[in-house]
């Protein structure tokens, strides 16, 4: 029996391998002929998107930020926002943005650091409308604001609070929040001025047109390129190098390098992971405190977090002007649940940055929102059949029933079979 199963397994494994090789051969031919990129040199979809961009679409030199500037800008790099404004709702519409971050990539990006301003007198007279770059600011948001819009990193999480705090933000996000007239007050502490340019327009328009006019694998690959590129610019500068060394070399490294991990191989061989691009201030303080001679190798990482930060900020800017509407009861990074579709009618299209109706005109009869990425909704399809869709972070989609959410809303515990 086991031999028969093994033979069957080998047969299917062989067929799968042949299919995969054929698919890769087709992909290799397509990408090499159309974009002059060898996919065997690409270790990820993001890496592939970057190579295509640099080879075919990049016509502006993009600088790599210095370590100190990277640290300053990185504090402004936030993802999307997910918020719950009402727990139980009826008669809802579910809409989703067409390619939110690629839409953001069409905007002007920060290119080159021009000036760092710290003089309080100059900052006091700074004309925010004319400024482009990144700002370290003291923020005040009144407690009366029902839907706060500026993010803050707190205990490893991103929150959108009221109150007073100090944070770093892309200038265009600050302008957008102030334009909503919610009551935010901003005091600029430090300003990093940047030149600007449109660096992704050709890339985004090319792949979005393919996405719009294609189906199946071609559409998927176009979507992958669109969504994978900007994240490469947000890569951290910290890099880990891995070596196999003997005991004497390991002993020397322990006293001169920042070791991330050591794995024993045999009596005289060790696998050691060494941190590079370590913050120079940390190294100096460490050496002074324990009289050591720690050093760090400089490894160039082709990233620019200013660009990644701007892309995600433009995404939040697009969403915030819709989230403030009273009809919006739940929002995710690029989607909304609303009790009124009228404010969005003129935005329903397949254009980049516009919305699509996820249910194609059908109306959600009832929904329960327990928390961030914890919701369920019901609607009647065209055959008048009741359909339930559920989301709960960590649980397979549509595993939980509508009744489960009703019970959780009442404070009851439920048992979950996650499909394993």
Question: Could you explain how this protein is built, in words?
Answer:
With 420 residues, the protein is an alpha+beta fold. 36% of the residues lie in helices and 27% in strands. It contains 12 helices and 17 strands. It has helices at 2-35, 45-56, 67-74, 100-105, 120-124, 171-179, 201-213, 216-232, 247-254, 280-290, 305-323, 402-409, and strands at 83-84, 88-97, 109-117, 133-141, 152-154, 157-159, 163-170, 185-197, 239-245, 259-266, 269-276, 328-331, 335-338, 355-357, 364-371, 374-380, 386-392. Strands 1, 2, 12, 13, 14, 15, 16 and 17 form an 8-stranded antiparallel sheet that branches. Strands 3-8-4-7 form a 4-stranded antiparallel sheet. A 3-stranded antiparallel sheet has the order 9-11-10. Helix 2 (45-56) packs across helix 8, helix 6 (171-179) packs parallel to helix 11 and helix 7 packs antiparallel against helix 8. It is globular. Residues 288-292 have low confidence and may be disordered.
